[in-house]
Amino acid sequence: MNLLEVKNLSVQYGSGQGGVLAVDGVDLSVGVGEFVGLAGESGCGKTTLAMAIPNLLPKYASITTGTIEFEGQDLSNKSESELNEVRWRDISVIFQGALNALNPVATIGNQIAEPILIHEPGTSHDAAITRAKELLEAVGISASRSSSYSHEFSGGMRQRVMIAMALACRPKLVIADEPITALDVMTQAQILELLRSLSETFNLSMLLISHDLSVLAETCDRVQIMYAGKVAEVGTADDVFGEQNSAHPYTQRLLKSYPNIHQERKFIDGIPGYPPDLSKSHAGCRFAERCTVSVEKCFTDEPELAVISELHRSACHLVGGSK
Amino acid sequence: MTTNSNDFELREAPETQLSILGKIWQDRMGRIGLLMTVSVFTISIIGPMIWPFDPAAVGADASSILQPPNSQNWLGTDELGRDVFSQFLQGSRVSLLVGVTATIIATVIGAGIGISSGYFMGRLDTVLMAITDFFLVVPSLPLMIAMGSIFGQNLTVIILIIGVLSWPRNARIIRSQTLSLRERKFVPRAKSLGATDLRIIRKHMIPHVLPLVVANTILVVAGAILAEATLAFIGLGDPDRISWGSMLHFAFASGAIGRGAWWYFMPPGLGILAIVLAFTLLGHSFDRINNPRLRDAA
C-alpha cells in the first residue's frame, strides 16, 4: 500500500463564478521511501496540490472533490484539530521561500524545538533543545549554533534549518515546496544530497516540488508533470525525462526549453503562449492551443491519462493509441 | 561536505555586545536623560530618609512662616511654616509613583488591545479601534477632571484615571506593527506547525513589538507625571499626599507667587520640568536606537 494516495482531488480558490479551479481531478501517490517530483510552470497547481495534503491551504481555498488517503485514513474531511495530530508528526512541510520563514528575533534552536514542544506536549524545554541540536548536527550545522539568530546564517544554512525543523517530529512524509529556489547551484547540490541522505537515515518519503527539471530528474524516483491544474504526464524519472521516452508534447517542449550540455550550442526553444485561464471551463486538452502537434480532436475532447507502460501515464490523444 | 561547520563559528560582533543601556549611554541625549532619571529616582528614594524635617510639621510661631532659604531650611518654609525642601523630596515620590504605575496600566491596556486588534483583525479589530479612536479624540484633561471629581481624590483613583486615559496612542502604534508582523512568513509557518494563536502572540509577536512598547512607555511616563501635576495643581490631587502639583497648588492659593516667595513655587516647578525632560530624552533616545531611520536625523 502506498503511504499517500490522492485520488481525483480538486481544489478551488474562491467560489461560484469567479472561482478558480487550481487543481482539477488530480491523482498522486507516494510510496514508502519514495521520492516523487512535482513539476510544471508557475500557476499550474503544484503548490496548491501539495498544500492540500496536510490542508494548509489559505482560507479562501477549498477542496471540492476527491480523497487524500494517508496510511489508509482520509485527510480531506478531517477537522483542524485532527489534522494537527497528523501535521509534523506524519507529514511535515519545507516551505517555499524558506529563507524568510524564520523569526529574526528567536534563536534557531528555539525555532527547531517549536514543533517538538507543540506536538509532543510532555517534552521539557531542555529536552526539546537537545533534540534541536541533534537535528542541527544531522543537517550539517554545528550544535553550538543553536543559540544563534537567523541573520547570522547564510541562505544555505537557513534552508538546512528549515529542513531540520521539518524533521523535528520524525515525520513519514516531507513535502518540500521549492526547497532549493534562490540558492546558488553549489548549495542546491548540497541541499539535494542532504535530503537524499536524510531520507535514508530517517526513512522518509518526499514530495519534491520544483520547476527545475534537472533537479527532479536527478533526485526523484517518479515525476509528475502538471499543466493547468491537471496531470499531463506521470512516470519514473527515466520514463518522463528519458530522451525518447517522454510521451506528452508538453513535457517534450519543457525539456526542449532547457539547454543540453551534450548538444551543440543553439538557442533554446521556449513554449510560446501562456497557460489557460483556470477561472473559465475548458473543452478539450488544455495544452492544445500551445501544442505544435495538436489535431482537431484536441480542441474538443479532453484526453484521459493513458497507460503507456507499467508506471508511465500520459494525458494526450496522440500517444497511447485508442483514446 | 557535512561538518566543517566549525568554520561558521560565531565571531564577536562588537555592535551587538553593547547592552541597551550601553547604547543609550553612547547617545548624548540618552546619556543626559539617563543621568537625570537616575538622580531623580535616587533623590526621591533616599532624600526623605535622610532629610531631618517632617514635611507636615507646622511652624511654631508666625516668624517661621514663608521664610526664605536659610542654613536650616534650605528651601525656606511655606505659609504654614513647613519645610519646603522636605516637601519637595516627599513630593517627588508621588510624581514617580503615579508616573510609573499609571504607565504600566496604560502599557498593558495599550499593548493588549493593539496586539489582539492587529493580530485577529476582522470584527474585533473594528470594535477595538472604534473604542481606541474614541479615547484618542476625547480631550483628556476635562475628562480627567470630571472623573477625578466623580471618583474622589485619592492616589489610587488618580493613577487609574491617568492610566486608563493614556493607552490609545500605544494601542494604535502597536496595532500597526502587529498588522505588518502577522504577514511575515514565520507566522503562517508557526501556524502550520500547529501553534495556537496564544503561542504565536507570545513567542513571535511580543518579542517583536517589545522595543516599540518600551520606547513608548518611557514617553508615557512623562505624560503621566504631567497629568498628575495638572490634576493636583487644580486641586484634584490626593489631599493626604504632598506632590509637586499640590505644592504648586498651595503656593498659588496662599499667594506665594504674589509675595515673591520663589523658594516655594520654583522647586516643584523645576522638579516637574526636570523629570519630564529626563523621561522624554530617554524615550527619544531609546526610540532612536530601535529605529535606525531616526539615527542620523539628529
Automatic annotation (TrEMBL), chain A:
Residues 4-253 form the ABC transporter domain. GO terms for cellular component: plasma membrane. Pfam families: ABC_tran, oligo_HPY. Keywords: ATP-binding, Cell membrane, Membrane, Nucleotide-binding, Transport. One of its GO terms (biological process) is peptide transport. It is a peripheral membrane protein. The keyword Ligase does not apply. InterPro entries: AAA+_ATPase (IPR003593), ABC_Ni/Peptide_Import (IPR050388), ABC_transporter-like_ATP-bd (IPR003439), ABC_transporter-like_CS (IPR017871), Oligopep_ABC_C (IPR013563), P-loop_NTPase (IPR027417). This is Unannotated protein. It comes from freshwater metagenome. It is found in: Cell membrane. GO terms for molecular function: ATP binding; ATP hydrolysis activity. Coiled coil: none annotated.
TrEMBL record, chain B:
Its main location: membrane. It is a multi-pass membrane protein. GO terms for biological process: transmembrane transport. One of its GO terms (cellular component) is plasma membrane. The chain crosses the membrane at residues 32-51, 94-115, 127-145, 151-168, 209-234, 261-283. Keywords: Cell membrane, Membrane, Transmembrane, Transmembrane helix, Transport. It is found in: Cell membrane. InterPro entries: BP-dependent_transpt_permease (IPR050366), MetI-like (IPR000515), MetI-like_sf (IPR035906). Residues 92-283 form the ABC transmembrane type-1 domain. The keyword Transport applies. The keyword RNA-binding does not apply. Pfam families: BPD_transp_1 (PF00528). This is Unannotated protein. It comes from freshwater metagenome.
